[in-house]
């Protein structure tokens, strides 16, 4: 087997320069074949401190530019993303393992996120009003200062773009900490931002894991922390960042339920449900994890089996992120089997010829799952769907509402009335009607409920403007001779 080409060593990006900080390093492994493709420094508190100081220094000039000046960089940067689309796509594939189409969609989404950011002057909505005769009150949105963004492994390019463009165009400077297992896309992002003309120090990158995240939460120079990752870590980060009085939004894991009714279009439903659970190898926080089959839906399940059998690892299915992830997912499937569920399509022991060292799990459908089983309750984060049978809408809603998570939920039906009931009663932040991955496109914002998100507001869209800014209220009077009332 031929290993992938080694990538340059990962460096921190501080004050516009790549610097080799941190004493210890760890390997970066391509999940496509298990080969070592790079290594990265494990930054220390000292490295974080340098990055924060660089961002503080840059904040003075960056925040004093006008919004219209700041967005110019992002017009150029968005063009660079398009120009380097193929290269960026392949880099995502290499470090994350998803297939070409899925990786390309990430870069396209990052471009859309930049398009939202450059529209900021049109939507920011600063207000001015004559509140008393001759007296004006205005509200302006001002940046916070240095902010931090901590990202997960599953979208190495897109999730960093959930936060970076909006936070920066609004006048903040940033220290980003990518997932230590997929650091290459963020390093390339830093290079392209520099090429687009972003002043040094406005965007900085530190690398590593838990220790670096803790340093970011604790550092007194950071005003706000955004986090995307598992619920376990989201809770730790939310508590730690807010305990040092920072603003925080922390997005967590998911267990998304799709409610399928007998009147649903069989072909469209089967292909949507299977695509939702297996796309990006099930490593999407919007992936279908439980299908609640209401009443007589056997004909749809039969079609799902046919769809799932068309999925071939290494062709239209990428790898999962690591050997540990593969082992964890396969253990869940084995546990479901031991608990009495029926495995309709089994993705265990999947290998790809020529890439035997890679971490592959085939699409898996598990039927007759009950709500007490671990596959019904816990986030699996692999290409696996559990089918729970329900007798009617009320029981289906009860199953969905029983989950601690609340990222997405979807309903498949031809009935507007049924769909409306699910839209009203599902306990999730993002709802799909005949859509298996209901990601709201810009300008609509992204964010879940319950244990899928901690903090106020969403991470993208208009909602993020609140998060990345604070309001300044100014009351002015210029003409003392003007008639004024008691509020003057
Ligand atoms: P993770 O929680 O393991 O890691 C996320 C980040 O936290 C990484 O940068 C990592 O270095 C850091 N980290 C890990 N352990 C830590 C600890 N103990 N203390 C402090 N920091 C720590 O998540 P992951 O495995 O990279 O990503 C997958 C998870 O992210 C899934 O649960 C998925 O549902 C979730 N996710 C959620 C959304 C969403 O929008 N809600 C989006 C993408 C991914």
Layout of secondary structure:
Elements: E1 12-14, E2 17-19, E3 24-29, E4 36-42, H1 45-64, H2 67-83, H3 85-96, H4 100-118, H5 120-123, E5 127-132, E6 135-143, E7 146-150, H6 158-169, E8 173-177, H7 184-196, E9 203-205, H8 210-218, E10 224-228, H9 231-243, E11 247-251, E12 256-260, H10 266-278, E13 288-294, H11 298-309, H12 323-338, E14 342-345, E15 364-367, H13 374-377, E16 384-390, H14 393-401, E17 408-412, H15 416-425, E18 430-433, E19 453-454, H16 461-468, E20 469-477
Parallel strand pairs: 7-8, 7-10, 8-9, 10-11, 12-13, 12-17, 13-16, 15-16, 17-18
Antiparallel strand pairs: 1-2, 3-4, 5-6, 6-20, 11-19, 14-15
State the main characteristics:
488 residues, alpha/beta, Aldehyde Dehydrogenase, Chain A, domain 2, 2 domains, seven-stranded mixed sheet, six-stranded mixed sheet, binds nicotinamide-adenine-dinucleotide
Report on the structure:
It is a single chain. By secondary structure, this protein is α/β, with parallel strands linked by helices. It has two domains: 12-252 and 452-473, Aldehyde Dehydrogenase, Chain A, domain 1; 256-433, Aldehyde Dehydrogenase, Chain A, domain 2. It contains 16 helices and 20 strands. It has helices spanning 45-64, 67-83, 85-96, 100-118, 120-123, 158-169, 184-196, 210-218, 231-243, 266-278, 298-309, 323-338, 374-377, 393-401, 416-425, 461-468, and strands at 12-14, 17-19, 24-29, 36-42, 127-132, 135-143, 146-150, 173-177, 203-205, 224-228, 247-251, 256-260, 288-294, 342-345, 364-367, 384-390, 408-412, 430-433, 453-454, 469-477. A seven-stranded mixed beta sheet has the order 14-15-16-13-12-17-18, sandwiched between helices. It has a six-stranded mixed beta sheet with strand order 9-8-7-10-11-19, sandwiched between helices. Strands 5-6-20 form a three-stranded antiparallel beta sheet. β7, α6 and β8 (173-177) form a beta-alpha-beta unit. α4 (100-118) runs parallel beside α6 (158-169). The longest helix is centred in the N-terminal third of the chain and has 20 residues, at 45-64. The protein is globular, with a radius of gyration of 24 Å. The chain starts with 11 loop residues before the first strand and ends in an 11-residue tail after the last strand. The structure holds nicotinamide-adenine-dinucleotide (NAD). Nicotinamide-adenine-dinucleotide (NAD) binds at residues 150-154, 159, 177, 179-180, 209-210, 213, 228-230, 233, 236, 251-254, 285, 379, 381, 407, 448, 452.
